[in-house]
Amino acid sequence: MRRWFRRLLVPMAAMGALAPTAVLPAAAAEPAPDIRTVIEAVPGLTVLEERPAAPGYRFFALSLRQPVDHRHPEGATFEQRMTLLHRAVDRPTVLSTSGYGVSTTGQSRSEPTALVDGNQLTTEQRFFGTSRPDPADFSTLTVRQAADDHHHVVEVFKAVYRGKWLSTGSSKGGMASVYHRRFHPDDVDGTIAYSAPDNVDDRDDSAYLDFLATVGTPECRAALRAVQREALVRRDALVARYADWAAQQGRTFRIVGSADKAFEIAVLRAPFMFWQGGGAPRCADIPRPDASTDALYSWIDTVSPFALYTDTVAADFVPYFYQLGTQLNYFTVETAHLAGLLRYPGATDPRTFVPREIPMRHQPGAMRDIDRWVRQDGTRLLFVYGGTDPAAAEPFRLGRGSRDSSVHWAPEAAHSVRIAMLPDAERAAATATIRRWAGVADQRPS
Fold first, then answer.
1. What pLDDT, in 10s, does the model give residues 121-162?
2. What are the residue ranges of helices labelled H in 73-217?
3. In terms of DSSP bridges, do strands 191-194 and 119-123 run parallel, antiparallel, or are they unpaired?
4. For residues 115 and 113, what is the distance between their CA atoms, to the nearest angstrom?
5. pTM
6. Is residue 63 within 8 Å of residue 52, measured between CB atoms?
7. Helices 235-249 and 218-233 meet at what angle, rounded to 10?
8. Fewest C-beta in 10 Å: which of 54, 242, 326, 405?
């Protein structure tokens, strides 16, 4: 079967040159090999399991051997986990990533995959989930190394999937899709990035602060400030309840430091997470300052879940905060209205969520380079943002060098924005662009 896979790579022109001139009887066509057999022949790829899938698809959990450091491919390796929704080898293929881990128990089609009726490869980012080098040298957790991971995925699978290729992702996944294109612009025929922030300057948080000071109604923003303040006024009772819950669940706070600090972080992040989750319809649910302590606790836990700041969950996101603190950049939160109630300066900084034994060095040029590429050389990029999403406070912007690219806004949508939420004309234009990139403009999506 490895021999069959190698034959797949022989150029058709070379095959034609070897064809005999005599007319021979037509031979029966050799049946196409089963797709599992084909992908099992891909060098470095392991089929972990096959699970039931939607009609017309097959679903596989896979792992691909990747260099820990692509600058030294002869060195150590790790297994990058991914999934495959197989449609047909001649259909378009969508490379999708969440920017974090990936579930191998099942996978739904991304919006671009549905629009082009294609295959879908969903990748887990390096250092997340099981895609973790051992030992974990965090200096190799960079946008370039992750882009090279994606390049290798495309490289090996293009021998199987011969149609057009797209890439997509939302939030951090959308960012990763853009970063992949920066370093390997010709890997795919187009990129659709949803809710992807472009944090060019880590020192300037004015766009985020201005957004949170103007989003929604004045009444809703005032209610958020009031509930934050009241929660900190009643800190002792609320933290005691938080600590009791953590003890009962066997949860600890070694990474963040304490239940008290974790509580303060949850309160500080609440407005951002409220709006990111589509908060506008829920403004009426914000507790008043005279609400019960139970009501305050329940609301904060719903908007900025307390479990996020315990080691059980925080450990999974150490790579995320490491990336924020070294290359991706982050933002500070507004605290003026909480004067006299805060105990931990810089509590929401990425360093809080990364164990001290892992060194972090900020690299201010990383995002400037990405931004410059999008404006000067970015081609076939489609960005989609929600008008009430704080992550869109600093969106990617196109420049004079951008080609066949566009930015679309759904005014009432938040972080989970989709093309289907765009105004009619923009939705039609974005859909037509994606289908054109995928080479299926004259076909109806299924």
1. 999 999 999 999 999 999 999 999 999 999 999 999 999 999
2. 111-116, 143-157, 172-183, 206-214
3. unpaired
4. 5
5. 0.91
6. no
7. 80
8. 54
